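Sequence and fold:
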Amino acid sequence: VTALMLSEDGPRLFCRIWILLATLSAALAILQFLHLMPLVTVPASALDARQATGGLTRATGLKYDPNFEAAILDVGLAFISLRTKSSLRDTAAKFLLVAGVFATLSRMGVIIAVVVLILGVNRGGPRKRGIADTVVRVLFRVAVLVLVGFLVYSSMPDALKVYVQARFQDLGNAFSVLTGHQIASVPDTNITSGEQRAGLFQAGLQVAS
């Protein structure tokens, strides 16, 4: 990585390599989610932790942890969005990366992917767009993503719908913990992952202050 950064074309080459590997990892993650490929980087002792309700599998692609895999794919998506010109190949890679993020069933990964799609979009050329034009484009992309999200959710199997609802309800619980409207469950009860992370974040702030 250091050698690449010292080269004039190093950062561009680094981004291209990252996008390529992220795209390959996303394709593998999709196949894993569809049960067409095994979790090749997860040992047998940790396979149960990658299983979600309803027989769903949290894909890991080329990584061990599904959340880390989602982060890798989100970075690749951001790198593509930084390009000044968009091509059909870039569009296909974006679609593959977003699908790969979804295959990990990572809530934060999905949220970051949506933010990147809305705000980090290809500029389409060196000419700077006005504020009004930018706002219209962002609102249009939000509307498209809402429509696509609704269609995808409507076509999901019931087991996947239940899982998605539970995961985002947990996200709401975490937000309530952060804002002080709800106290995280104690460790010996059914504490959720969202509540746990919110509680740890609060504890970190208290230590830092």
